[in-house]
Specification:
The complex is a heterodimer. Chain A is an alpha+beta fold. Chain A has helices spanning about 5-15, 20-25, 85-100, 105-135, and strands spanning about 35-50, 55-70, 75-85, 135. In chain A, about 45% of the residues lie in helices and about 30% in strands. Chain A has a 3-stranded antiparallel beta sheet with strand order 1-2-3. Chain A is elongated and about 85 Å long. The relative contact order of chain A is 0.18. Chain B is an alpha+beta fold. Chain B contains 12 helices and 7 strands. In chain B, helix 3 packs across helix 5. The two termini of chain B are about 45 Å apart. The mean pLDDT of chain B is about 90. The chains are: A alpha+beta, B alpha+beta. At the A-B interface, helix 1, strand 1, strand 2, strand 3 and helix 4 of A face strand 1, strand 2, strand 3, strand 4 and helix 7 of B. Strand 1 of chain A pairs parallel with strand 2 of chain B.
């Protein structure tokens, strides 16, 4: 099964600003009734790395994670996970994850939430890459002239 | 043995009240918000996250503020908070190849593919105290051609036959975890890298320095250091596929060292590896050096130097048990000392009467 749409959606919702997540809700005249299935709650995820960057896995340390699961009045379930401890953020992700599974909400979520967030994330990354690019440097080795 | 503390309740309450006021400093100056601490003192915040083994800049900043900037105390507060939370998931290994780079340098290859990216650094300037106000930041950072770090110096050294292969592990079993099990020596490299990642930077710096100065003889070269943002991906069981839940900043360091003493086939340089939360270059570098030093036994090298000894390094590198054991000396030990003093007086009495006793027997 192809999960790419949902993966893209969840990754972008995790990076969306809270103000944008709030604002989008008011775009809908037919807001669904949302029931909490689990959470929102705070916990941990263990971050793994690889030995020598390419080798076996190891546990580096943990990160705080907020998560939530919700159900809409028609039974659609949505899940939200985000780094940090914002329960509000996790719950918004779960709500939009559920709503985006319906054609009547999907377009607005795409244009009001996902696309602007995608642009903002790309711009922020581009800015860091450009700043790093401006510090690209050549280290030249100076060869000492032979003594006369 | 500890004596039961029966101090005056009022005195302790008053001591705590004074302490509660102390971190605030001058009551007339504004209190620091966590965002100010994690922004303006980000290296301190990142050190607390690395040693606290918990990535959360806001919590680390709150811990630093509560501890009045005392890093080991802040690390302790973060570890204690961590113990109150359930673990939801384990991430897929972070992919530092796909890092959004802030900085990437190599000290062994002059022109690595993608270039030397200095990033935000003080390495090439005068490190003098600037008396001017830091608010006077006049110009925004320059922007150039977008950087990417698609290639890895160690891959090129490997392809050239100069470097040993990366150490592989078992992919279908969970790697050992210090958060779930006590340290039992000897341990494999996976557990060592976890212990070093949360180890006290000062302690590890001293060990790495000792290895550089010749006592472990690892002869390090910096193949590559990178600092940047990586995505955190995990597979929630209710979804059954990987999702990306945000980004963290990490520092990664790959070092190359002298060939192993006993090698099958032609000799190759050996590896050290360091990975740490946040922009912590010194930490990533010392972890790589100590990681390589700790490989001495498996590489058939002399293990007499402290940096090469698993028991010495791993049992002493964590500041939480170390400072806890040290600080318990400040609690009342009157009965212990009484007993020691009693024994000493007894010895003194015997010493003063001994010559006479010897004389009698002679």
């Amino acid at each position: 099964m192809d999960h790419r749409n949902r993966q893209r959606r969840l990754a972008l919702l995790a990076r969306a600003q809270l103000t944008r997540l709030h604002a989008c809700w008011h775009q809908f005249d037919d807001q669904p009734v949302v029931t909490r299935l689990r959470g929102p709650e705070t916990g941990l995820a263990m971050i793994r790395g690889r030995i020598d960057a390419r080798g076996g896995r190891f546990n580096l340390g943990e990160v705080t994670v907020a998560r939530a699961s919700v159900r809409l009045d028609d039974g659609t379930v949505g899940h939200g996970y985000v780094l940090g401890r914002s329960l509000e953020h996790a719950e918004w992700i779960a709500v939009y994850d559920a709503m985006a599974q319906h054609a009547r909400f999907a377009d607005t979520i795409e244009t009001q939430l996902l696309e602007p967030t995608e642009r903002a994330v790309a711009a922020a990354r581009e800015k860091i890459r450009r700043r790093a690019g401006a510090t690209r440097c050549r280290f030249d080795t100076l060869v000492r002239e032979a003594a006369p | 043995m500890y004596t039961t503390l029966k101090a005056s309740r009022e005195a302790i309450d008053n001591a705590h009240r004074w302490q509660a006021e102390a971190p605030r400093g001058d009551a007339g100056s504004p209190s620091m918000a966590p965002a100010q601490i994690s922004g303006q003192l980000h290296h301190a915040t990142e050190r607390v996250m690395a040693e606290g083994a918990l990535y959360d800049p806001e919590l680390a900043a709150m811990a630093l503020r509560q501890a009045s900037g005392d890093v080991p105390e802040a690390v302790h507060l973060l570890r204690a908070f961590r113990a109150t939370l359930p673990r939801f998931a384990t991430s897929l290994p972070i992919d530092t190849d796909r890092m959004c780079p802030h900085r990437r340098i190599s000290a062994v290859q002059k022109e690595p593919a993608g270039g030397q990216l200095l990033g935000p650094t003080t390495d090439y300037g005068h490190r003098l105290l600037d008396m001017a106000t830091q608010d006077a930041q006049a110009t925004a950072p320059a922007e150039g051609e977008p950087a990417s770090v698609d290639s890895r110096v160690s891959d090129e050294l490997l392809a050239d036959g100069l470097l040993e292969a990366a150490e592989t592990g078992i992919e279908d079993a969970d790697p050992p975890d210090l958060g779930q099990q006590a340290l039992q020596l000897p341990v494999d490299r996976a557990l060592r890298l976890q212990a070093l990642a949360r180890g006290d930077e000062g302690f590890l710096l001293g060990l790495a320095y000792s290895s550089q100065r010749g006592s472990a003889n690892t002869r390090p070269h910096l193949a590559e250091l990178r600092v940047g943002d990586v995505a955190v991906e995990l597979i929630p069981p209710e979804l059954g596929f990987a999702i990306d839940i945000g980004e963290i900043t990490v520092s990664e360091c790959e070092t190359v060292h002298r060939p192993a003493a006993e090698t099958e086939g032609s000799p190759r340089f050996t590896r050290g590896y360091g990975l740490a939360f946040g922009h912590c270059e010194r930490k990533a570098l010392v972890v790589a050096l100590v990681d390589r030093a700790l490989r001495a036994e498996s590489l058939g090298e002399d293990t007499s130097a402290p940096a090469c000894r698993q028991d010495f390094v791993l049992e002493n590198c964590d500041s939480v048990p170390a400072s806890g054991f040290l600080e318990h000396l400040k609690l009342p030990h009157y009965v212990d000392f009484h007993s020691a003093a009693f024994t000493l007086r007894d010895l003194q009495r015997r010493a003063s009467t001994a010559p006479a006793a010897e004389g009698e027997s002679a």
